[in-house]
Amino acid sequence: MSSSTDWPLWEVFVRSRRGLSHTHAGSLHAPDAEMALRNARDLYTRRSEGVSIWVVPSTAITASSPDEKDSFFEPAGDKPYRHPTFYEIPDGVKHL
Amino acid sequence: MAAVTAHQTTQKTLGTANAAGGAGSTAAAGETDAPAADHLAAFDAAVAADERIEPRDWMPDAYRATLIRQMAQHAHSEIIGMQPEANWITRAPSLRRKAILMAKVQDEAGHGLYLYSAAETLGTSREELLDKLHAGRQRYSSIFNYPTLTWADVGAIGWLVDGAAITNQVPLCRCSYGPYARAMVRICKEESFHQRQGYELLLALSRGTEAQHAMAQDAVNRWWWPSLMMFGPPDDASSHSEQSMAWKIKRHSNDELRRRFVDICVPQAEALGLELPDPDIRWNEELGGHDFGAIDWSEFQEVLKGNGPCNDQRISQRRRAHEEGAWVRDAAAAYAAKHAPAQTSPRTPASASASAQTSASAQHVEETA
Amino acid sequence: MSAALALGDDALVLSHRLGEWAGHAPVLEEEVALANIALDLLGQARVLLSLVGDEDELAYLREERAFRNLQLVEQPNGDFAHTIARQLYFSVYQHLLYERLAAGDGEFAGLAAKAVKEVAYHRDHAEQWVLRLGDGTEESHGRMQSGLDTLWRFTGEMFQPVEGLDSPESGVDWQVLESSWLAAVTDVVERATLTVPAGPRSGGWAAGAGRQGLHTEPFGRMIAEMQHLHRSHPGASW
């Protein structure tokens, strides 16, 4: 006999130390945001992995689809002039 | 952010699992469907190139099913595996050992959580998997159907059972399915202390009083053969192996990993001053590894069938904990529903963490973690 | 040193009781949470007992009558609501007490300053659950109320001044501690739509209670289990 109401899924983001951004650590179930935050603390920072946590309902995330991969990401592939290595600078010129 | 993509899929596939399954079956059955054939080609190419398959990628139905089965079994093993060791928490003979054991059993709950989460990216839910476990429709590792009779068993589990598990799991960190591989990276990192604590525990016993030494030897005698069985049936009798290897869910054969494990354990046993209960273990110069005695696979089959010493006990305790917890889970869900308006309004992550309602706790976490 | 023993035994015994939950918690996330609390408490116990002597000798070789913990913490787990009631009563007490110790300059100031952060989290955990169980379903409301009611009679003992912490220098005013505790507990209980129990906060037995080494029957069985293996191998190291 299982519980009639399943707790929703949350995504957990942890800032490992000050100065770094939050990164996705994993997910968990919790009945609400406050418990999600606490469960995340207990589960994902028990070895001092973090100094700050975000929890986000999994349903609140909109993600790009693999089907759109080509149209989303390939156009960025042929614009090498966005990168500093594209440009040739004479030897000996410094601080550029 | 691959991981975010991963979980978006959970939501998507939860709703559209059937549709996705349908598309997959078409591909498997016909190959006449051009887009599906393209998908399969892309999938095969990604696996061949050692790229990771992510949740929203197209994948063959059988690949999805194999992964769900394996991750579920793995997750179930973690949480059932809490029981034999938790059996000794209240009797741990020193406070240091007690703290170590509690932390270890806690890790197992955590590892179960990581794995259920990884399985959820494939469109199943934890609740569904637990129901299958409780109904006996999904398995967990048979090793946990053996009892922990003495304190030394805690050490033997750490050394041999966790050792065998790690031998199995390290290659899984490179498994073709991204979420599973990522969960395994985290698990392997955390588990490295599990095996060491077991070894250290046995070492203390082996070098302790005569009674302690005997206790340690007895535990090794009882856990050695079941640990070897953890690698699964011999290669020529393993039903799932070939396909899993092709899909890079599995990287080495059962027998290959088993031999690797024996080779690792022989010198470790020597250093412990304990004997492995197999008179046939000897170095084979030609093979560059150890020969060892024949495994009694009939015992393995019996335990698998449910006739192990603790099958009923383990599953009934799990079921009982779940049933007795139902009112707690319901209560929290009911509370959340009553207080919902404040929780579900859409916000960006940044403003969520700064909102009045959660900021106190977020700060609190910063200070104490 | 009797104060270190009293506080250390509280932490040791409650940690043991929480350890009994392993594998039985209502949901996996709660397995992890309860184990965290148990581990914090065990850590506190080890520091405190080590101030008195060898931690293992003290934990494993004392007879029941030599333990100085509160009767509250030795009470069996019962259902989850019962455990949460015990957590609420004790963690609010421990939090308030350790805050005062941390603010003072007595011998416990250092360790209390570290422990108070852990205990603040335990208190928060208990409060969150009291709110959810109290204001959850009819069943959870009933169970939570019953847990609070059953354990109420063990809460009076908490405010008997602990020997060694009974002077003004200790920084602890036991009467103020009691009224702060009552106010804090009342606040949570009422927000959880529950009722503060009406009965007396201590038993009618004049002999005293846990701080005097007088315990309840379940405690004897608890330490029998806890000490059995250690005592079966005198002088062995583990």
From TrEMBL, chain A:
GO molecular function: phenylacetyl-CoA 1,2-epoxidase activity
Alphabetically ordered keywords of this record: Oxidoreductase
Encoding gene (name): paaB
One Pfam family, short name: PaaB
Superkingdom: Bacteria
InterPro entries: PaaB, PaaB_sf
Organism: Streptomyces durocortorensis
Protein name from the UniProt record: 1,2-phenylacetyl-CoA epoxidase subunit B
Top class in the EC scheme: oxidoreductase
EC nos: 1.14.13.149
From TrEMBL, chain C:
Organism: Streptomyces rubiginosohelvolus
One Pfam match: PaaA_PaaC
Lineage: Bacteria, Bacillati, Actinomycetota, Actinomycetes, Kitasatosporales
Official protein name in the record: Phenylacetic acid degradation protein
InterPro entries tied to this protein: Aromatic_CoA_ox/epox, Ferritin-like, Ferritin-like_SF, PaaA_PaaC, PaaC
NCBIfam families attached to this UniProt entry: PA_CoA_Oxy3
